[in-house]
Amino acid sequence: MLRILGKIQRLGIITEKLPEIGEPALTEIGEQLKAHIGERFGGSLAIREVDAGSCNGCELEVQALNNPFYSIERFGVHFVASPRHADMLLVSGPVSRHMETALRRTYEATPEPRLVIAVGECGACGGEFGISYASCGAVSNVIPVDGVIHGCPPTPLDLMRGILEAIGKRSAGC
Amino acid sequence: MTPQGPLSAFPQRLADVGVRVEARESPGLAPTQLILVKSGDWSRLGIEARSWGCRWVASWGEEVDQDVGDKIGAAIRISTCFEHAGAYLVARTAVPCAAPVLASHTTSFPGADRPERHIRDMLGVVFADHPDARRWTRHQAWTQSEYPLRRDFPAAGSPQERTPADHQYNFLLAQGSGVYEIPVGPVHAGIIEPGHFRFQAVGETVLKLEERLGYTHKGIEKIAEGRDVDGLARLAGRVSGDSTVAHAWAACMAMEKAGGLEVPPRAVWLRALMCERERVANHVGDIGAILNDIAFAFGFYQFARLREVWQRASREAFGHRFMMDCIVPGGVAADLDPRFIATMRDDARLLGQQIGKLMAIINDLPSVADRVRGTGVLKPEYARALGCVGFVGRASGMDFDVRRDAPYPPYDKLTFKVPVHHYGDVNARARMRLEEITASLGLIEALLGGLPPGPVRAAWTHPAAGAEGLGLIEGWRGEILSFVRFGADGRIARFFPRDPSWTTWPALELLIHDNIVPDFPVCNKSVNGSYSGQDL
Hints:
The structure holds two protein chains of two kinds.
Chain A: H1 2-11, H2 26-40, E1 45-51, H3 57-64, E2 77-79, E3 88-92, H4 100-109, E4 115-119, H5 120-125, E5 147-149, H6 156-173
Parallel strand pairs in A: 1-2, 1-3, 3-4, 4-5
Helix pairs in contact in A: 2-6
Chain B: H1 10-16, E1 21-24, E2 33-37, H2 42-52, E3 55-68, E4 71-84, E5 87-96, E6 101-102, H3 113-123, E7 126-127, E8 179-184, E9 196-202, E10 205-212, H4 220-224, H5 229-236, H6 244-259, H7 265-293, H8 297-318, E11 327-328, E12 331-332, H9 339-362, H10 366-372, H11 380-386, H12 390-394, H13 402-405, H14 426-449, E13 468-475, E14 478-486, E15 492-498, H15 501-511, H16 520-527, H17 531-535
Parallel strand pairs in B: 2-5, 6-7
Antiparallel strand pairs in B: 1-2, 3-4, 4-5, 8-9, 9-10, 11-12, 13-14, 14-15
């Protein structure tokens, strides 16, 4: 136990203020996100991630939002295990035809008002897979979508920016 | 001269037992041997391959025009790949489209079960004595009498307005008092891929787990048809996003072998550098996730931190956090800036040290050991029966690694340790990953130190129509097989990628037996099969 505490103390907090490799300020986006969430969602935005047929690339980057660098929970965003608890669906695509009904049901199980964001090139427009006998293509071909986050896959920062935009758009529209 | 391999005498053995066998030359498959077998001898082939000690690797079909007696008729050509002591052999036969019936290999090799059902769903080949008549890849997106990989099936298909959920799939039911069923998925609680698990349990103990996959079926094999080589490389890089480097490499290797293209040495070394980086990233992330699934948050966040640092370095050096689309036909998309050689070597050393310090902490905790030791045991005989590859196989005594046993450049010039364990529990699979990280970090240093000079991409020339190639790569999950056949104008006629997950998903059903339901997440994560890679 002492060694764990020692490690934690030596490492300190690595959650970053200003990320490197030319990315715009993480905290800036985060603070905006937090402000919007505070205003519109009572300080807490619950997201249900749905893989509707992706290659797993998007999922890895959504998972990264929870790592200590991004630590998206500090801005009031958390991922929930059920659509019943969610304010927002983050859907990666393309929507395979085998997932079409599961996605519709997940959408219907999400209480209103709900936000849907299509994640990644495939979710946005079908990407490398397009529309076929096996794929419905973009998420918007199956359920209504409020925002899209491009990228193959989108980086964690792209994801944060996209979530912020979708909330902002919905707030303005109301 | 034909090289003497462990399988070179196998065709003769087949002939001795009365199998009509014909050896063929196929430069795109070499050094893999190619033999043609009459369809009536297919069952015998399976039996003999088993008694020879072969591992059943993969099977794929394609619709072709074939001489049927005195006329040309449509036929399904089936190719099955076997491996023994590092030597590969492809056996091939054909059945007429009008009556596509063939003996099953599942009776000799249990690992052939789902792959054969996939071929049945996609091409309509009936495996007469297959023990499981249920569909596998097909849910409700196309009908029982339609076969997406037949030539008369358009890629667009004729989908219904809405595809209904899959139903009437007969899961095996356990009977008895106190037995209950837990359906899980396709939408899972975590941020992971979709699939369905059907548990039969008594109290907390799992009596039986049955998997139902195919939810992420995106028609990869079909939409590959007609693509150019760059398009196929991009598609292959998305068969399983976490293995983008390995799948793109395997597909490019297949295309390059089909075209007889020599890839510049520097490109090959850079490919290996990326592949080892991918292996490290996934193993580091998964060790964290395994710790998370036993509620040890400290370990999870520490390893998530290391993975993020590693991915950022990949982005700086190669322009993408997963190095997606960095492997292209003929080489790699961009050269490595020399300034990264030193930084990458330092990063590798630092990561090794950091993991060492963390493991000193983790190894000290009886609560961690308690959750992973003896949990989810995959017995070596099961691993052998299913032909499990990669770290899952090696944690259960299957001492095989393509990089060492069927070496491809640059691994033929490198020495590295392939760890192997025998106990087959979650602990063994986690140890495998740690030891593979150490081996990969050593390889990364060696690759950076020996990076040859020269160009990083060879000019592409279209292979002849009909040319075929086979790529075999050790990805982080294990052996990836990639088959490519070219059609006219350098376009792809057939693409079949076999992700190692085909061999490890059935293993999960076995290793969870008699464990408690709450240990399923950690058992699943310790294997971490790809849904997308198996659903295609």
